[in-house]
Every structure is written in C-alpha cells, then in structure tokens.
Specification:
The structure holds three protein chains of three kinds. Chain A is of the alpha+beta class. Chain A has nine helices and 21 strands. Chain A folds into two domains: about 10-230, P-loop containing nucleotide triphosphate hydrolases (Rossmann fold), CATH 3.40.50.300; about 245-360, RNA polymerase II/Efflux pump adaptor protein, barrel-sandwich hybrid domain (OB fold (Dihydrolipoamide Acetyltransferase, E2P)). In chain A, the strands form four sheets. In chain A, strands 6-7-8-3-9-10 form a six-stranded mixed sheet, with helices on both faces. The radius of gyration of chain A is 24 Å and the shape is globular. Chain B has helices at about 1-5, 15-55, 65-75, 75-110, 110-125, 130-140, 145-155, 165-190, 195-205, 210-235, 240-245, 255-260, 265-290. Chain B is mainly alpha-helical. Chain C has a single domain (about 60-265), classed as MetI-like (MetI-like fold, Orthogonal Bundle). The longest helix of chain C has about 35 residues, at about 1-35. Classes of the chains: A alpha+beta, B mainly alpha, C mainly alpha. Chains in contact: A-B, A-C, B-C. The interface between B and C is large, with 82 and 81 residues.
Chain lengths: ~350, ~300, ~270
C-alpha cells in the first residue's frame, strides 16, 4: 500500500505485571525499530501474549513504559493506539460480509462510503481476496478468513501491526505458505510488526529479529541466524532449532568435554548453573578418516540410523559423553556410504559451530 | 483519558500511579454497569427479606427474644404445617424423579429433531401460567370432572373419588408444575453425556443394563441433582397450587405465612416461619453448590 | 438373544412411560382450550355446544379488561426495564474479576432461590412505608427484581459462548468500548437478550404471589383477579382468559425460537 504513513519504533521499558505471586512480565525492556518484523517467541505461559496484549492496551501492566515513536501510550486506551491487530481466532465479525469486516475500521474513522469501498477492495486485493467482498465469513475457509483478518488489520494503514499466533489454526502446508506471504506483505507495507508465536521455525522464517521470552523475561533478542548460532542460554539453544546437549566443565575461558578441551570461535557466555555444549545435528561433519586437528573430535560408534526422507539421522554413541545426533542429507548419504550399526564414525565439530551456553543466562 | 495522552513526565519509566488509577477506573466502570440491577435486587428482595427475618427475633413488646421460635416449635398447628410441607415436598420430588427420569432418558436417546419436537410438550406447559394449569387441574379433578366421569363410565369406580380440594389434588397439581424444572436440567445433562462411553462399556462386555447403571446413570447425576434441588426448594415455598387445589384442607408453609399475616397480623410468628423456610432453601442450595457447583442449576 | 429381547422390552416400557408423561404434561392445556368455547353455562367436558360467550363475557367485563391492561402494561414495562438493566449487569459482571463476579452472581440469583412468598411479604411491608402498594409502579419494580435474574443468567451464558476476541478486535481497530459493545457484541448476543426479554415478560405476566399482596384496586393484575375468583368458584370465563394467556405464551415462545432458528441457520 501507499507509504503515506511512516512506521513507528516501539520502546518498551521496565514493564512489570504480576498475577498474585506469578510474574507474567518481569522487568521487560525491548526496543523495536521502525518497520521491523519482530517476533516474540516462547512456550505457552511464558508471558509473550501478555506482552503483546500490553502493547495493544488490553492488558494493563503494573508499571513500566511503552512508547510508540516519542509518544507514551502506557495508559492510552486500545482504540486510541492506532494499531492493527490480528487475533489467533481471527475474531472476524460473523454477521458482517467480508467487505463490511474490512471496512469496519474505516467506518469508525469517518471515511466516506465510496472511499471505504475502494480501500477495502484494495486491501482485499493485497491479500489476494479480490472479489470476495460480498461473501459471508461463514463461506470462507480458514486460510481465507486469516487473509480477511489481515486485510482488516492493515486497511487503515496503521503504523504498527500486532499479530497473536495468527497462523496456528491453519494446517501445516497452508501455514508455511502463509509465512512466506506474510513476510512479503510486510515488505510491501510500511509498518512495524510485532508477531507472537510458539513455533520456532515460524519465527526463524519470518522475523527480522526474534525475542525469546521465558518466565516473563526476555532471554535474548537477535536476528534469526545469530539466535540460532549464538544462543545466549541453554533455554534459547534448546527452544530454537533441533539440538542435543552435553554437560561441559568451564575453567579459564575454555570448556572441557570429559578430558578434552573444546575449541570454540565465540567467547563463552557467562551465566549460572554450569555450561552445556549444544550440538546441532546438521552442523556436525562426518569424516571418512581422522578428524582434522582444527576441529573438535566427537567420534563414536553408530547406535542407530533413521531414514527421514529428506535426510538421514544418525544416532552416535560418543566414547564418553553420551548420545549425539548427526543429520546427513539423504542424497550424499547414499553416495559416501555411511558406516553401519556398531561401526565407528568420525565426527568433526568445527570451532565456528561449537556452541557453549550457560544453563541460565545471567 | 485526554490528560494521559499527552503524558510527558519524568516518572514515565514507572507510571505506577497512572496505571493504578486506570485500573480502578475500569473496575468502577464494570461495577457501575452492574450496579443498577444489583441495587434493584438488593432493595426489593434482599433488604425486605432481611428485615422480615429480623422481625422473628423480637417479641410483641419489641424486645429481643426467641419467643417466636419457641412458639412455632411448640404449637401443634405450626409443627403440623412443617411436617405437611416437608412430606408434600418429598412426595412431589420423588414422583417427579420417578416420572421425569424415564421421560428424559427416552428423549435423550432420540434424534435431535424428534426430541426437539417432543420437548414442546414440556416447554408449552412450562411457559403456561401456574394459575392456568392449576385451574385446568381443578376442572379435571373435581367431583363431576373428566377424570371421575371417565373412570365411572369405564367401570373402574362406582362413586366419584375426592381428587380435588385435598392432599391428592395438591400433589397432582404440584407434580405437573414442578416436572419441567426437573426435566430441563436433567435432559440437558443427558444430552451432553457421551453415548460412545456407554457403547464402549457394552463393547467391553457390560450388559446394556449394567452399562446404564455403571456408566450412564452416574454421568446424569449432576443434572438429576440440580433438578431435585430446584423441585424441592420450589415445593417448600410453593403457594398457588396447594392454596387452590388443597381447598383449605392442605396448609403448607407459604400459605401459613400468608394467613398468619393477612388474617392474624402476627408478623413475629410469620417471620419465624419464613426464616425456617429460607434456611431450608439455602441449605439445599449450599449443598448443591458443594456437590456439583451452582452452574448446573441454570442450565437451560 | 435373551439380551436383545430384554432390550426390546426395556425400549417398549420406556416409550409407554414417555408418552404417558408427555400426555400428563400437555393434558391441562388440551382441556382448557376446548372448554373455553363451550356454550354451556357450567363447566363440561367435552363441550356439547360451541360459542364465544365466555370470550364475550371476558372482553366486556370492565374488571377483567382493566386487570388485563394492568398486567400487560406491567409486563411490558418490566421487560423494558429488566432487559437493559440485566444485560448491562451481565456484561459488567462478565468483564469483572472472578471474585466480584461470583459475589454479585449470588446476590442477583437470590430472587430465584428465596421463596416468593417471603419476597411478597417483604415487598408488601416495604411498599406500605413507601405508599407503593396498589400502584402500577410498585408491581413493575417488584416484577423487575424477579425478572432480572433470568435476563442476567441468559445473557451471561450468551456472553460465555461468544468469542470475546471480537470485541477486542473491534477496539483495536479504533472502536471505543461502548461502540464495540454496541456494533459487535450486542448483535451477537442478541438472541440471549431476546430470550431474557421473553423470560422477563412471562415472569411478570404470570406472577401471582407478589401481585396478590401488592396489586389491587384499579391496578389489580389479571393473575390477582384470577386467583381470587378461583378461590370462590369455577367461572368458565377463566377458561377463556386462560386460553388467551396460553396463546400469548406460545406466540412469544415460538417467536423467540424462530428468531433463534434464523440466527442458527446463518451460522
């Protein structure tokens, strides 16, 4: 749509909210850049929805500040925050037609009937539902309803759009399709998007940055790639992506797995509760001969081989530390010929892929 | 609201007092919406009943005393009223259960459509005035009424039976009035029972009867209990039907309270009777709440 | 084999009992209507002649007509007051904290639970102090208190079945709470509100005990007159009045059901 409006940055500082003794938001601070697609990622009950509802104005924190641009909105009622919002249940109005739903925010804003019509049509075109205006909501499929909800949330060109698990009710294939579409849509719109999900893959696919939320706190805010490769705590490493972890000892800035020192490119993050080595199955390299000196040697015996279509998962019994999973592309696996069960397998973990995290972030 | 929008203050980092006052404002709004209705109930129902109850603790001279209670528990007349009220309420409740349970079970096993059509037979009387129905029973049950006439013509009896203006008439009329109060919650509960469970029980070797008693019946209990509580409470305080169909021979608590006031102007005694009636009703409600929760009472 | 036989007997037995009970329930209604068209000057069934004489008697009696007017006006006013008050209360309680909601719910349910004779006597003595006995206002206020629980309970259950996110969505899209309530929430709990209004109307129209004590003189309700008349003798005019009351109830009931049906079809 046209860029008549400028997207706004969001500045959240020291947000606190407690339900009895449970802290739903525990001193949350977060800056979101104008035009950014930021995802709040966390398990259910982590506080991510509470944070989104606080941004929307539906959940009132106990203290803290929220600024849209340079405007304090902490006590502004929802309807004066100028947000577009997409709900998990879509929350479409079933007694109105598709066009009436989309025109609802325009009607409130006193837009003339004819402008309502053209704007609603354009918004529906944007979500590829042109010509559906006269349909009833009940005649639409789940995916189509989702698009109507999107059109309704952006038709009045809000500077900020909030989305609460908008794709969770769709089936897997449609969900993946919509992820790409949403991302493309974001690039077209000039709006800051705050997106809530518990699906780490969805978060990685769509976001400019991801804020991982746990127990009412933000564990880490990073771009998808850095979040994946350099998690700041075991929680983040475990929640984002597939991994196996082994306990390590840390002394003098070096981590030791059993007797062996681990080579790592990144400095070891500080925290409490000991450290763990996080191994992503696809980052391990299967070596035909000896593991090169420059890499960490995680060789062991093949315990099991599981064919998964696009790849093969090899479960390796490490000499001392336990089981490790290795993912090998199905095509190359066929060519090189993997060792069979019980045979020895050479595994190299390169220093740039070696992730050592504290149990809890400091 | 507008004062908040332009909010620019050094304490912006905290905003504690602003947020608190917003919270209070919102809570006051909701309370304000509820208040008019709550006030009407408070002023028209709660306070008068409370005041009425308080009368029972004062004697004729206006002194605090338990005289009224002593009197109603010593007087033959009042004691009989309690016994009769209790007997009638129990009888009506038992009959309603015996007649209503099979009806609900029968309806619950039908298709939605057929059951909905037959439910009209329950709903039409339910929404018909109690007076109209009592009148109809007066006509049906009188000495030369249809029931007596048809039984005589069929040769079942020689002399017309005394059906109206006595205990029998009161109970028949009351069962008719109360039955929908049992049927509606019970039927709703039975409809929500998962029939797959019963089928599974039969599949696992239970006989249909065994499955009924072990699986279906326990699951229908919340609705049954809600119906029983409703019927029993309403029967305890019931006025219209026993007053008309009892023909003065049956005196239940509600009538005794009315006559104690309108004929004898004895507010203290009437109030004491009322307190006992109220306590019995509240006890039933409390019991219901403890066992199944109050929600079931209002399942329609 | 034995089990199947047993099952058939069980089913037959159930059907017989079910039909008998339904017959018992509908019997009074079946009797009253034909009786009201009887031409005889005393009660007889089945009627041997057909006439409208009891309807004429009803419609030309100034007492019955005045009582009918009082009852209808009281019922309409009760509906008009109890429906908005009860609906707003239900909404307010729905949005309140559970602690407040439960406390208020118990208070508001009182009129259903407390034996109506106690309310009647209590209201009677309260009105004696306020000079409200034998006034239309007195009847309407008392009936409103009786009707409120029905409205509140039905609207609250309607709100529970309603996806409240819709109201939040409307507000996020720029609607004030009041506007969102009116344009989005109310249209969707409309059926519950209508049902509540129907219950309020019927509650007032059919109420006997409070009316018996509190109404009177020019403002006697039809139920009060019927009750007093039935205490003395079995006037066939009452059959005609009863038929009218049945028709009003059934028409209202069917009306609400039809509105509900059309809404469900839409879903």
């Amino acid at each position: 749509m046209s860029s008549a409006t400028q997207s706004l940055p969001i500045e959240i500082s020291s947000l606190c909210k407690a339900y009895g003794s449970v802290k739903a938001l525990d001193d949350v601070s977060l800056n979101i850049a104008a035009g950014e697609f930021l995802t709040l990622l966390g398990p259910s009950g982590s506080g991510k929805t509470t944070l989104l509802m606080a941004l929307a104005g539906f959940s009132r924190p106990d203290s803290g500040s929220i600024r849209f641009g340079d405007q304090e909105v902490i006590a502004t009622p929802p309807h004066k925050r100028g947000l577009g919002m997409v709900f998990q249940s879509y929350a479409l109005f079933p007694f109105m037609t598709v066009a009436e739903n989309v025109a609802y925010p325009l009607k409130i804003r006193g837009v003339s009937k004819s402008d309502q019509k053209t704007h609603a049509e354009r918004a529906l075109d944007t979500v590829q539902l042109g010509g559906y205006g006269d349909r009833r909501i009940t005649q639409l499929s789940g995916g189509q309803r989702q698009r109507v909800a999107l059109a309704r949330a952006m038709v009045f060109e809000p500077q900020i759009i909030l989305m609460d698990e908008p794709l969770s009710a769709l089936d897997k294939q449609l969900r993946e399709h919509m992820q790409i579409e949403l991302k493309a849509l974001h690039q077209k719109l000039d709006a800051t998007v705050v997106y809530v999900t518990h699906d780490q893959r969805e978060a990685l696919t769509m976001s400019d940055r991801i804020a991982v939320v746990n127990h009412g706190r933000i564990e880490q805010v990073e771009t998808p790639e850095r979040l994946y490769r350099q998690p700041s705590s075991f929680f983040v490493a475990d929640f984002v992506g597939e991994s196996v972890s082994l306990p390590v000892k840390v002394a003098n800035d070096t981590a030791q797995l059993g007797e062996r020192a681990l080579k790592s490119d990144s400095p070891i993050a500080q925290g409490s509760g000991g450290h763990r080595l996080v191994i992503r199955p696809e980052l391990l390299e299967v070596t035909s001969g000896a593991v090169p000196e420059t890499a960490n040697d995680l060789s062991g015996h093949v315990h099991d081989i599981i064919y998964q279509g696009d790849s093969v998962l090899v479960i390796v019994q490490h000499d001392s530390a336990g089981q490790i999973n290795v993912r090998v592309p199905a095509n190359r696996a066929g060519q090189t010929g993997l060792p069979s069960k019980g045979e020895r397998i050479g595994l190299a973990l390169h220093p740039e892929d070696t992730i050592i995290v504290p149990e809890h972030a400091s | 609201m507008s004062a908040v929008e332009g909010y620019e203050s050094a304490e912006a980092l905290q905003n504690v007092s602003t947020l608190k006052s917003e919270n209070h404002r919102e809570r006051r709004t909701f309370l304000g919406l509820s208040m008019p209705a709550v006030l009407v109930v408070l002023v028209v129902v709660f306070l008068p009943v409370l005041w009425l109850s308080s009368l029972s603790f004062f004697n004729a001279a206006g002194e605090l005393s338990s005289e009224n209670y002593a009197r109603i528990f010593k007087s033959e007349l009042y004691l009989r009223t309690f016994v009769v009220t209790f007997q009638i309420s129990v009888a009506v409740t038992v009959i309603c259960v015996l007649v209503g349970y099979p009806l609900c079970y029968w309806l619950a096993r039908m298709s939605d459509r057929n059951a909905a059509i037959l439910m009209v037979f329950v709903l039409v009387p339910f929404w018909t005035s109690v007076l109209v129905r009592t009148y109809a029973w007066l006509v049906l049950l009188q000495r030369n009424g249809i029931i007596n006439e048809s039984m005589i013509s069929m040769g079942i009896i020689d002399e017309p039976l005394q059906l109206a203006h006595n205990l029998t008439g009161s109970i028949i009329g009351m069962v008719h009035i109360m039955l929908p109060f049992l049927v509606l919650p019970l039927y709703a509960t039975m409809r929500s029972v998962d029939t797959d469970l019963v089928r599974a029980a039969v599949g696992l070797g239970s006989s249909p009867r065994g499955a009924f008693w072990r699986v279906f019946f326990p699951m229908s209990l919340p609705g049954l209990f809600a119906g029983i509580v409703l019927v029993f409470i309403l029967s305890l305080g019931f006025f219209v039907t026993p007053a008309l169909l009892g023909g003065g021979r049956v005196q239940m608590l509600a009538q005794r309270i009315e006559s104690t006031i309108t004929i004898y102007s004895n507010w203290g005694a009437a109030s004491a009777l009322g307190v006992v009636l109220l306590l019995m009703a509240l006890l039933m409600i409390w019991l219901m709440n403890r066992v199944f929760g109050l929600d079931k009472l209002f399942m329609r | 084999m034995e089990q199947v036989g047993q099952r058939k007997i069980d089913g037959l037995w159930l059907t017989v009992v079910g039909i008998a009970v339904l017959f018992f329930l509908i019997l009074p209604t079946l009797i009253v209507i034909p009786m009201s068209f009887s031409g005889a000057s005393f009660l007889e069934f089945p009627p041997t002649s057909f006439s409208f004489r009891w309807y004429t008697a009803y419609l030309t009696s100034p007492e019955w007509m005045s009582a009918t007017r009082t009852s209808l006006i009281a019922a309409i006013l009760t509906t008009l007051i109890a429906t908005p008050l009860g609906s707003l209360c239900a909404y307010g309680l729905h949005c309140s904290a559970p602690r407040i909601r439960n406390a208020a719910q118990i208070l508001v349910i009182m009129p259903i639970v407390v034996p109506v004779i106690l309310i009647a006597v209590g209201v009677f003595s309260l009105y004696a102090k306020l000079g409200l006995n034998y006034t239309l206002a007195g009847v309407v206020i008392a009936h409103t208190a009786l009707a409120l629980p029905f409205v509140i309970v039905t609207v609250m259950s309607g709100l529970q079945n309603y996806d409240f996110d819709q109201e939040l969505a409307a507000r996020s899209l720029g609607a004030s709470r009041a506007y969102a309530l009116w344009t989005v929430t109310v249209p969707q709990v409309k059926f519950s509100i209508q049902t509540g209004a129907f219950l309020a109307f019927i509650t007032s129209l059919d109420e006997v005990v409070i009316s018996m004590l509190v109404s009177g003189g020019d403002n006697a309700t039809i139920t009060r007159r019927m009750f007093n008349s039935l205490r003395d003798q079995l006037d066939p005019t009452i059959a005609a009045i009863s038929t009218c009351l049945i028709v009003v109830s059934v028409v209202a009931l069917v009306g609400v059901q039809l509105i509900g049906r059309s809404k469900n079809v839409d879903k």
